[in-house]
Every structure is written in C-alpha cells, then in structure tokens.
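Table S2 (continued). Query chain:
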Amino acid sequence: MLVAMDWLVVAVAYALGMLPSAQLVAGRRGIDPTAEGSGNPGATNVYRTAGRRAGLMVFVADAGKGALATGLGLAVGDRSLGLACWAAATLGHVLPATRRFRGGKGVATGGGGSLVLFPILGLSVAALFVVVARVTGKASLGSIVIAAALPAGVAATGRGWCEFLVAAGIGAVVLVRHEGNIRRLASGEERGFGR
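Corresponding output:
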C-alpha cells in the first residue's frame, strides 16, 4: 500500500512523464510537432517533420523519462512503487496536465520503464518492435504488436497479477492511443516512416 511519501514519488514520476521532449527537440528546429505532421508529440512524428536525428533524440528522451521514473520508484521504495511510477510516467506522457491532457502515445516512455523492471523481456520486446517496424516500414504496427507482447511476456514470467495488470494497463493505453493507426492499418492507408 502506498503511503504519503510514495504518493509524492508517484507525482514526481508523473511530472517526469510530462516533460515535453518532442516540443523541446523539434522546437530547436522551428517545428511544433503538435501542429505539423500527425500532430502527435512523439518520436515518429518528429522523425517525419524534423528529421531522423531529432526523432531518435525524442525516442531516447521519452524512454529515459520512463526509465528514470521507474528507477526512482525502485530506489526510494520497492517493486510496487517502481510499478506505480512506471504507470505514472507513462500517463504523464500520454495525458499531461500541462498540455490539456494531449500527449504522446506512450510507447517509448512505457518501454523505458519496462527495461528497468523486466530487463530481458524489455530488450526482447524492443527487438520485436525494431523487427516489425523495419520489415513493414510502420512504427505504429511495431507499437501495436509490443503493446500486446509486453503484458503477455509479463504473464509468462509468472511475476504475479499485480505486475501483469500494470503491464496490461499500459499496453491498453498504448492501444487506445493507436486507435486511428489501427483503423488506417486495416484500410491500408497507414503511412510508413518517411511519408
């Protein structure tokens, strides 16, 4: 059960998730990712609108937010607090209070936290993302696949219901944020990386 100090740490994790990586990186190139391309403040849209290097920087920063927040929870408390901070950072990225709850899709931030809590599984899921995205040319499809693969992997490791439910919740958030991508994939209208 979370106590007052734990809630403060969770709030810090949410605040870390809210850091506007995409706007900071793309803004240095005079681009507002919320107003250009897909309008999503995430690595793929920055990649398309500001270039490969900028997209990679946003991906690393977003993953770092998730990893740092999750690691903070583990360092200050225990695995339960690490899980809570993982969820909080992901929600901070997806639903930032400072930007009228209009954020990114949570893939990199959730992925960064998973690397701290489940290093081998997290690396495996990251590799799966790379393979699917490279083969299909669609980062969205890679994201959708790993949103389902991560909770399935957590369940397979026998970590317990709590860890599975947090992973499944984060996966569900990612899937909901990809609802438009899922529709475009189904109709064959989803764009690839460079388009």
